[in-house]
Amino acid sequence: MVHIDCQSVACVVVALTLWARTVVAQPSSARQPVELWGAISALGDAPTGRLTSTYAPPLLPAGDFSSRGGQTLTLDPHRALGFDAGVNIFPSRHIGLQIAASRTSADLAGTNGPYAFEFTYVSRQPPDSTPQTFTIQQSIPWPDTTGSISVVTASLNGIVCVGPADHVHATGSAGVSYGRISGTARALGYTTFRMGGRAVLFSDEYHLEVALGAASTVGFNAGGDINMPVHRRTAVLIGYRYFAAPSLEVPVRVSSILNAGEVANEEAVASVSARFPLDPVRLDVLGSRVLAGVKVVF
User: Domain map of the chain by residue range?
Assistant: First the structure.
C-alpha cells in the first residue's frame, strides 16, 4: 500500500519554513524575493528491476544430496504518491536558486515466472537399506510481486521565472539531486528438506519478504511549473519533475517469513538468510511525477 512518511515530510516543511522566515527577517534593503512551496505528487515512473534468486535447497540437518533452485521477481512500480517541498530564491528578477526535497512511494507489482528447483538425494530404503538415488523436480506457478519502493531526494537547482509574478507565470529549473532508495518485495520461494523415519523425505516451502536497500545515488533533475496567483502572496502551482541517475545495485536481505504458520519445521530468519544468499538487485533509477500544490511568496 502506498504511504507517505509524515514525519519526514513534516521535518522538511518545518526546516524550509524556518529558513524562509530567517531570510524574510532581514532588513528590506538586503531582502531577496523568496518563494516557499509544497505539492502532492503522482508518480509516472519509478525505479524498476528484476530480483533473481539462485541457491541450493538444503537437506537438514545433513545428508548426501545435490540441489539447485531459484526464480526471478519482476519489480514494476504502480500507484505512486509523494510530497515535494522547496524554496526558490531570486537575487535577480528572473534567475535564482532552488532548494528542493521530495519523497515518493510506489506499490510494486509484476508478473512472475515459476519458482523451480531440482533436488537429488541418496536414501537407504527398507528392507535391506541399500543406497538409492532419487530426484525431485518441481516448477511452481508463482503469484505476482507485491511490496513497495521509496525514493527520497534532495536537489540543488538553478531556476528561471518567465512572466510577471502577479499574473500567471512559469518557472523552469534543473540541477543535481541526491537520491536514497529503499523498499520491500515479496514473495521469494525457499525450500528445505528433512529426512524422517523409514527414509521418508519431508519438505517445507517458505514464502519470504525481502528488504531492498537502502542505497544512495547522485543524478540529474529537471522540471517546471505553471503558477496561478490566487492572492497577493499566494499561488496555486501545477508542475512536472523528472529525475534520472545511473543504474544502481541495491543490497537485498531476507526480512520476514510470510507463511510461518504453514511451515512445519520453521527456521529463524537469520538461519534462512545464511542458507539463502541474495545478490544485489540492479535498479534502473528514474522517476517522473506531476505536482499540484501551493506557493507562498515572502
Answer: 6-297
